[in-house]
Write a structure and sequence with these properties.
The chain contains four helices and 13 strands. The protein is α+β, with helices and mostly antiparallel strands. The chain has a five-stranded antiparallel β-sheet. A three-stranded antiparallel β-sheet has the order 1-2-3, with no helix packed on it. The chain has a three-stranded antiparallel β-sheet with strand order 11-12-13, with no helix packed on it.
C-alpha cells in the first residue's frame, strides 16, 4: 500500500513499491513551467502577428501590398502567374473553376466559393451561383423583365445576373456615377 507523504513545500508525494509519483497542486509549481511557457508565448505572439486580415504580400513586404494580386495556374509542367485584373470571369465546373480572360481560359482545381473569398478584394463579385465577374471588365448592364440582368463584359462576353445575386450589382451601382437609380426595384 502507498503511503502519502507531505513535503516541506506542501506538495504531495506517494511512495510505494518501485514507482514514485509526485503531484503538484498548481501548474505554476511545476519545475518545467518556465521552459514550457516560453515557446507557447512565442507561438501566441506569432499567431497575433499573422492574423487573417493580413495577406501574404503584406506579411512579406508592405511595399508589395499595393500591387495587383496574382493567381497561380498550373499548365502542364509549369506554373503561370496571371494578374487578377486580366481575368474577366470565373465559372464553376464542379470542383474546378474556369478562369477566363479576353483571349485564354485556364482550369484550376478550386471551388467557386473559395475563389469568391480569395478574389473579392480584387474586385470580383458573384452574379450567379456558378459565376464571378471582375467589375473592372463590365461594359454594360441591361435589365430583363424577369428581374434578372444581362452583364456585358469587355470583349463582348455576356452573362446573366440572377435575382438572387442582384444585390451585388446594386452595391456596385452605389459607387458608379449615374447608375444608382438604374438598379432600383
Amino acid at each position: 500500500m502507498k503511503t502519502p507523504l507531505k513535503s516541506s513545500d506542501g506538495s504531495s508525494a506517494a511512495v510505494g513499491g518501485s514507482r514514485r509519483a509526485v503531484f503538484y497542486r498548481r501548474q505554476a509549481e511545476h519545475p518545467d513551467a518556465e521552459r514550457i511557457a516560453a515557446p507557447a508565448q512565442v507561438l501566441q505572439m506569432q499567431a497575433q502577428t499573422y492574423d487573417e486580415e493580413a495577406t501574404p504580400l503584406e506579411a512579406i513586404s508592405p511595399a508589395l501590398a499595393g500591387q495587383a494580386k496574382r493567381i497561380a495556374v498550373r499548365v502542364h509542367d509549369r506554373i503561370l502567374l496571371l494578374d487578377a485584373k486580366n481575368v474577366l470571369s470565373v465559372q464553376a465546373e464542379g470542383n474546378y473553376v474556369l478562369l477566363q480572360s479576353e483571349s485564354e481560359s485556364y482550369l484550376v482545381r478550386e471551388t467557386i466559393s473559395m475563389m469568391a473569398k480569395k478574389l473579392r478584394p480584387n474586385g470580383f463579385i458573384q452574379i450567379h451561383r456558378s459565376l464571378l465577374i471582375n467589375v473592372a471588365g463590365v461594359e454594360e448592364i441591361q435589365p430583363c423583365g424577369t428581374g434578372e440582368y444581362i452583364v456585358q463584359m469587355r470583349g463582348g462576353k455576356r452573362f446573366t445576373a440572377t435575382r438572387t445575386y442582384k444585390n451585388n450589382l446594386k452595391s456596385l451601382a452605389k459607387v458608379w456615377i449615374g447608375a444608382d437609380r438604374f438598379l432600383e426595384d
